[in-house]
Amino acid sequence: ETATDQAVPLGSEFQRFLTILNDPGRNASKQWWLNPVVMNLCVRLWTDSVVYQASASSENRETNDRIVTKLLQAVRAKCHNEHILRNSTTSVQKQIVDANAVLAVTGLISSNNRDLRQEALAMIVAILNKGFGEAQKSYTMYFLGTREEAFFSDVAGLIRVSSDSILELRALREQKKIAD
């Protein structure tokens, strides 16, 4: 059982990749401790990637999306590892909240990249797993202390992209039907 219903690549190569997230000041056997410096870099990347996408070339956007997606998978895999080793994910969830990653990840749900959107949603599920109160508090503070339009804009972007995908799929089915 995983912390979410989304699959995480947990092969040996990916597990080695996860070591970049380890906190060197903690016992190596406690695989769920995240390096706060690396988490801060991830948050900056996740936050800035939305702005970067607007001006980057198509090739650079694809590379950026792959990197962002892989890092989201890695942090979510840390949640998975903690769940397997401790039957809990609260330690990783708290570290994610403390790094201010909740809203940075939420901003990624309006990405045009399907895999990135899916991973961002899976990460949000992992962060909010079992109603984690500190993550919920992050959202509450965000809604009460800032202009909440940004969140709804991200959700609207997600719905728009999903709607466009459905329309494209219908058009392709119609073309195929006509061609047959």
Provide a quick synopsis of the model:
This protein has helices at residues 12-18, 36-55, 58-86, 90-98, 101-106, 114-127, 133-145, 149-179. It is mostly helical.
| Straight-line distance between termini | 43 Å
**Helical fraction:** over 70%
Counted by DSSP, the helix tally is: 8
* Beta-strand residue fraction: under 5%
For the CA atoms, what is the radius of gyration?
18 Å
Could you walk me through the main structural features you see in this protein, from its secondary elements to its overall organization?
The chain has 180 residues and is mainly α. The chain has eight helices and no strands. α3 (58-86) packs across α4 (90-98) and α3 runs parallel beside α6 (114-127). The radius of gyration is 18 Å and the shape is globular. Mean pLDDT is 78; it is low at 1-5.
Key phrases:
180 residues; mainly alpha; 8 helices; globular; disordered N terminus
Would you spell out the secondary-structure blueprint of this structure?
Elements: H1 12-18, H2 36-55, H3 58-86, H4 90-98, H5 101-106, H6 114-127, H7 133-145, H8 149-179
Helix pairs in contact: 2-3, 3-4, 3-6
